[in-house]
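Ticket #4471: structure output looks truncated?

Reporter: J.K.
Steps to reproduce: submitted the chain below (356 residues) through the standard prediction queue, then opened the result file.
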Amino acid sequence: MQKRWQKRAEIEVQFNLSFVLIVGAIIIIFFVNLSGKQKEVSSQKLSADLLTSLEVIVTGQSVSVGRSSTLEMPPITIGFTCDSYQILTQSKAIGNVVVFAPEMIKGPKMITWTLDWGLRAAAYSSFKAANFVYLTSSNRKYYFVRDDPSVDAVIEVMQAEMPKDININVVTSAEIRTLKFENNYAVTFVFFSLDPIFPDSFRRAQTDMAALKINFNNAQPTMESLNGIASVSFYTSKDSAWVKESNALPFGKEAFYGALFSSNAEQFTCNMEKALQKLSFVAQVYLLRAQALQPNLAETCKADFADGINDFTAVKDTAKKGVKMAGRDVTSLYGAIESLKHSMTNLKLNSCPVLY
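Returned output as attached by the reporter:
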């Protein structure tokens, strides 16, 4: 009898122990899941708050032409496409704002900059079509590579205009071969009239690398030659070598800066498509205005207004073709801008209403 009770007690102890273990495991799983959900909710709230802050920054920057800012960043990565930006698990649409940025930005600081953009004929600036917003990281290194002293004036202007907190080094092709990797999370090389050279010390570097080649196409290297003459080639890093992605015609110095801030051809091309569609729309607005004013003009004004109407039509129709426009379309586009310049000069001399 005593043995039976002893055996029963042992079974109860084993049962109680198993029960405690099972309940304990359930409680642990519950709290682990709860902690995970709290972490997920916290992460979602953090990303939502940061996205809202970034939206305010981009929106505010897009209307602050000529202004640059350097902002402290939390230890996160911001992902960019032409159409959206993403923080942690959430994303937000950029809309029709033209934002040139690399595919990812890390801290410790984010640099913002804004310029207005419109096509130029030589030093003459046409009507403004869009504001360009530029974003990059203080920890992204930019190497401007040149051998020809004739490009120095262009580099000096670019350095003077770009935000001072951007990390820029100017080197020669000989110096780039012996560059030391400085542990930047991302590096962009800009080659002025030089074929890209891959620096030896970067062959094993765990970093995001991109390269551009600015082609002045046998023209004198000046800031004015960036308007419809010079072009840019995009390169990506693969197996310790530069691989060419594509060529592009940036349409002005502001667009060249856009190529520099973008990390690849796709980012740049998509944003330039947005910009050209904005140019087409603005030209249409000015075209409708000119057509409405034309019947009531003095005779001395009508001829130049008629020319202006033709020019606005050319800009509207050509820009609408976007980045895939042919070479003759580019010539037509800049020809219309040049013609608008002469029409505006004549209208002002004759005390007429201006075209824009």
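Triage note (M.O.): checked the attachment and the full token line is present. The longest strand covers residues 109-117.
Status: closed, working as intended.
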